[in-house]
Design brief:
137 residues, mainly alpha, 2 helices
Length: 137
């Protein structure tokens, strides 16, 4: 009887451990999303600062900001570069998040497998105990 309880108890403990592991992965995934969002905000701020600096520099040189083709080209180039950077940041963040969520799902599956394995071991132990008891009759 002790084998049965040990198998079931061990399976439950293993399931709980995998559940905690899955939770950890899910929390890391949430943090990866937050980090990617923060990096995107920082890149956007950097773009705005660059454009403001560029505008001030051009104005100091006497270039009319609204009508200058050079200014428009520089502005467009900076925006395209920032857009590409932000796409890259977002993609890397999503990739990391997906990897962590996949690990979390794997841990949950391992927890379910541990319970099934524990039930199987408990069943085998029970059958073994019954067979051992039959030998006395």
């Amino acid at each position: 009887m002790g084998d049965v309880l040990a198998s079931l108890s061990g399976a439950q403990m293993e399931k709980n451990a995998y559940k905690l592991e899955a939770q950890s992965y899910e929390e890391q995934a949430a943090m990866a999303k937050i980090e990617a969002d923060q990096k995107m905000v920082q890149r956007d701020l950097q773009l705005r600062r660059q454009l403001a600096s560029l505008g001030a520099s051009m104005a100091a040189q006497g270039v009319a900001i609204g009508t200058s083709g050079s200014m428009s080209a520089l502005d467009y180039g900076e925006k395209q570069l920032a857009k590409a950077d932000m796409k890259s940041i977002k993609l890397m963040g999503l990739g990391r998040r997906r990897q962590l969520l996949t690990s979390a799902a794997s841990s949950k599956t391992k927890g379910r497998a541990a319970v099934i394995r524990g039930y199987g071991q408990a069943y085998s132990a029970t059958i073994g105990n019954i067979e051992a008891g039959m030998k006395f009759f």
